[in-house]
Amino acid sequence: MNIRRIGAAAAAVSLALGLSACGSDDGGDGGNQLKVGIKFDQPGLGLKEGNEYTGFDVDVARYIAEKLGTAEDDIEWIQAPSAQRETLLETGQVDMIVATYSITDSRKEKVGFAGPYFIAGQDLLVRADDDSITGPDSLDGKRLCSVTGSTSAQTVKEQVPGVNLQEFGTYSECVSALVSNAVDALTTDDTILAGYASQDQYQGQLKVVGAPFTEERYGVGIAKGDTEKCEQINEAIREMISDGSWDTAVEENLGAAGFTPGEGNPPEPDACA
Ligand code: GLU
């Protein structure tokens, strides 16, 4: 175990005991440590480049963290792939998840959600020269890619029975497969797809079909039953929307991809159960 992990373990113990982080040895600045799960490979939403973390989800997480009393330097960013999000929360490896995480009834059996803070919709990403795919109805005989543990994979299996679906661990793996002709389309949220389509390295090669067929309500994942934390986060989301920070974050992170939020945005958070 290296020093960092010992520090993290000490922080986890002091949190578990309900002690403040003051006097712990993990940095010595007396801050409130927060472990936040994000995506590391979704440009515009959650992206890690070296030690830089950018994206709309990252900005939402930073805003909430500040309202919860955590300085930016006291946030520990942890990769939260789609299929691992519930487990990361259930085992306390993260305190909250802001990672294009749709609120669903089946996930609510294991974890809690604040929000929603954004409404997205499932869509399709195809090669720029492909006019044969216009929506879920035109996927017969096509090779489709999505991610294990996502609502995207589940929905497409339900809506297009018998679809030829390849499931990877991350969406960036699907993008590589699409560009190299190993699959014909990638399906997930329009936000995520817009981010990939606008990346310099794929300029002119990819396009979003632009006909969303689900409603994805992005929530902030927290431990199940933590109503107090849920209320605090909902309050932070309302403030982020009312003081203009939400608009700024959308523009700064998704504007370059030409993405504008669809109907229902910005949303009003659900009541905390
Ligand atoms: N929002 C969908 C979900 O939570 C798809 C995006 C993702 O996998 O992060 O499953």
TrEMBL record:
Q: Which PROSITE patterns match?
A: PROKAR_LIPOPROTEIN (PS51257), SBP_BACTERIAL_3 (PS01039)
Q: Report domain Solute-binding protein family 3/N-terminal positions.
A: 33-257
The record ties this protein, via SUPFAM superfamilies, to:
Periplasmic binding protein-like II
GO CC annotation terms, alphabetical: extracellular region; outer membrane-bounded periplasmic space
The entry's keywords = Signal, Transport
Q: Where is the signal peptide?
A: 1-23
What residue intervals traverse the membrane? none
Q: Which GO terms describe its biological process?
A: amino acid transport
Supply the InterPro entries for this chain. Answer: Bact_solute-bind_prot3 (IPR051455), SBP_3_CS (IPR018313), Solute-binding_3/MltF_N (IPR001638)
Q: Name the family the entry cites.
A: Belongs to the bacterial solute-binding protein 3 family.
Name assigned to this protein: Amino acid ABC transporter substrate-binding protein (PAAT family)
